[in-house]
Amino acid sequence: MSGRTFAPRVFSGIKPSGGLTLGNYLGAIKRWVAMQEEDYETIYCVVDLHAVTVWQDPADLHRSTHEVAAAMLASGIDPERSILFNQSQVPAHAELGWLFNCVARVGWMNRMTQFKEKAGKNAEKQSLGLYAYPSLMAADILLYHATHVPVGEDQKQHVELTRDIAQKFNHDYGVEFFPMPEPVIEGPAMRVMNLRDGSKKMSKSGESDMERINMLDDADTIAKKFKKARTDPEPLPSDVAGLADRPEARNLVEIYAGLADTTPEAVLAEFGGAGWGTFKPALAELAVEKLAPISTEMQRLLDAPDEIDRLLARGAERAETIAKPILEQTFDIMGFVRSRR
Ligand code: AMP
Ligand code: TRP
Q1: CB 186 within 8 A of CB 35
Q2: What are the tens digits of pLDDT across the range 229-265?
Q3: What separation in angstroms does the CA of 12 have from each of 45, 128, 147, 169, 195?
Q4: Which residue is closest in CA terms to ligand 1's atom 11?
């Protein structure tokens, strides 16, 4: 392929399904804010159509949509500089998602580890949407010809599948229409682990609240959760090699580095040799310092849902001005009759 160039454009999204965690903040939102300052056009989405791949109580979906939007705004996403909207208000996502269901292969979906993990032994009972969801995610990204996708480590495979879909479409229709988007997974805490079990990802849906830090947790709760976080009895090592077989220790060091905007090496240069009685309170204090202003602003915004709704509506209109022409060109390439235009 000769290599059409695409303007640098970022797309990323978070599902409104339950509360937001420190994993969402460090793995996604914090870096989205930073990317606004760089040479990208930035588009951020509350991906509500993805949330309903598992059951969502309607009132909870509504509230979570506001909460995710509030978290993005409170963390520093600027709704003028970035396009911020919720997915279901731009119907082109679902339309391109369908077209991509017809490009992606069943064998590709069968390799998706997230589906296997989520579905477990109950794959037959999952919604068809949960199985097909990576092709909707590909549509989210490619509908904007996005070139860069900042996500946590768990989403890498889905961005690779997006590239496979783009490539197959371009090849099958003999065009250079969709870009090959790059996952952007940089920094320490790209896979924040569960505080009670260092082998599992910190997630919104884990059974115990003690295993995660929620963005809306108050200072006492944050301190208590770090205090009770599982660790081993050894003091902190003085270099990262010493974290190799210590997943819980590594996780807390990475969280510290992510929050402090530094590296695990620098954290260990400061805390190497210290015990947990020193490190955990320092970590809790840092987390509160970073999260408290965000959660205060989130609460303020959540008390003004009309303001959020207005911003999302405006963001959806702006998103649609990019998405619609790309969808129409896709229909044209595929040979659909579009005589209503
Ligand atoms: P989700 O909450 O599944 O919609 O995820 C939204 C974004 O947060 C994605 O970019 C995920 O990769 C990221 N994310 C979620 N949980 C974690 C975690 N424990 N560590 C790092 N990133 C995460
Ligand atoms: N699948 C992502 C997650 O579960 C959310 C998501 C949906 C997304 N569409 C996206 C992320 C497009 C980046 C780009 O975390």
Answers
A1: no
A2: 999 999 999 999 999 999 999 999 999 999 999 999 9
A3: 6, 23, 11, 21, 26
A4: 152
Whole-angstrom distance, CA of residue 129 vs CA of residue 54:
8
Do 60 and 239 form a contact (C-beta atoms < 8 A)?
no
Q: Is 224 a catalytic residue?
A: no
Closest-lying ligand 1 atom to the alpha carbon of residue 24: 8
Separation CA 281–CA 261 (nearest Å) = 18
What's the gap in Å between 140 CA and the centre of ligand 1? Answer: 16
Q: What is the pLDDT of residues 39-54, one digit of tens each?
A: 999 999 999 999 999 9
Cα–Cα dist 2/174, whole Å: 12
Q: What pairs with residue 41 in β-bridges? A: 9
